[in-house]
Every structure is written in C-alpha cells, then in structure tokens.
Amino acid sequence: MTSAESRAGVPSGAPPEAPPEAPPAVTIRGLRVVRGRRLVIPELDLDIPRGAVVGLLGPSGGGKTTLLRAIVGVQIVAAGEVTVLGLPAGRPELRRRVGYMTQTPSVYGDLTVAENLEYFAAIAGADARRVAEVVEQVDLADHARDRVVNLSGGQRSRVSLAVALLPRPDLLVLDEPTVGLDPILRQSLWGLFRQLAAGGATLLISSHVMDEATRCDRLLLLSQGRVLADATPAQLLERTGAANVEDAFLALETGLGDAR
Prior knowledge:
With 260 residues, the protein is α/β, with parallel strands linked by helices. The chain contains eight helices and ten strands. 31% of the residues lie in helices and 23% in strands. Strands 6-7-8-3-9-10 form a six-stranded mixed β-sheet, with helices on both faces. Strands 2-1-4-5 form a four-stranded antiparallel β-sheet, with helices on one face. Strand 1 (26-35) and strand 2 (38-48) form a beta hairpin. The longest helix is centred in the last third of the chain and has 16 residues, at 183-198. It starts with a helix and ends in a 7-residue tail after the last helix.
C-alpha cells in the first residue's frame, strides 16, 4: 500500500473505482407528437449515448424526421420531455452545440457554396476559418465558388451538411445525409462521421438504407413512432436470428423477432 492509499484509507489491492458514466446526449421521456389529426409518436422513452454513431432506421413515414425535429427543438409536441446535452430541447444555448441537417437542403440557391457557409458561420458565431475546413470535409473544394442552384442534388445535400458542421457541434443530427450520393462519397462521409465520434461528438443519423446500419455503434429501429429495437448491430442480429439488419427489421415489424 502506498502512503497516499494509507492516508486515504484505501485497502491494499482494492480495484480502482470506475469513472462515472457520462449522462446521455439525449434523454426522451413520454414524448407524444400529433401532426394534424395523425398520431405520429404515441409515447416514446429513449436515451442516446454520448460519443457514439447512432443509426435511426425505419420506413418512410415511420416518424424518423418527426423525432429528429423534436430533438433539435423545432417540433411542436403534445406531451413529454426532450433533454439535449443537459438542457431542454430548443434552448438558445444549444444553437452552437447542436448541428442539424434537414432531409431537404436548407441553403440559398442564389449564393455560392462559400457565400452560404460564410453567412451561416456568422449566424452560428463560428470562426471564419471553419468555412474552408468544412468545404474540404464534405469534398466540395472544387465547387466553393459555384452557385448552389447549379449543383446536383447530392452536392446541395453536402452543402447543408457543411453548414451543420460549422460550429463543431457536440451533437450532430443528420436526416438521411447520404441519399443520392455515389458509393465512394458515401464511404468518405461515413469515415468523417467516425472521426467526429472519435473526437467526442454524438451523431444521430437517420436512414432507410439498411446496409448503412453496420457502420453504426447503435441502432434504433423505428416504425409507426415506436422503437422496435435499441441495440448494437451484433445484438440485433443475435436476438432476431436474422442474417442482416433488413431481415431483422422485417422480423420485428411482423412480430417474428425479439429485440428486448
């Protein structure tokens, strides 16, 4: 026993205490969302861990976008609480800590890529030097002076992703960021997502492309506003006995699988 251990009353050979577990990046309790006359999310409890790449998978119309909107604080909710990075969703303090990429590109077509990023950098209070960095990250350096209206759909989506990256967010919420991209660029972006997570960021990425699931640390399978599974890819396959995530989802959707 060292003298320090003796003074602290630590028994000789006692194992060190485990570091406290970080609180979830997002905590959702009793979330209920009604849009028009349709109940989109009936009642949802969910925790999203910090520093992970979490995939939100499910069919179109299953509630993925509504859930993401609730997390970033732009969705009217009927009931429940959504806490993001320790604060209620939508609080002004979160604007520089949460990056959000919508499914439809939310940038100005009559401005160039660089002008869009300079504008949004000023709004987010981001360092102007970040513009060149994020242009490189999303592989648009050759199009920085092109007007967005003249870009392809995939390129416009990457401009939106670059905007979301500007403030170096602690939480990055991406609504189908790889739709319309070729396989090589998709692979490059997933490499970027892994780098961001390795740096401590939390990523919540929605998709209906099931083969992207294996790239995630954790999967949330959502259908009709309900979480069918919350597990790692390996756990999901083991619990359902399926050969791939798509088959696992179908098994859960039809009640043939068990992801408890």
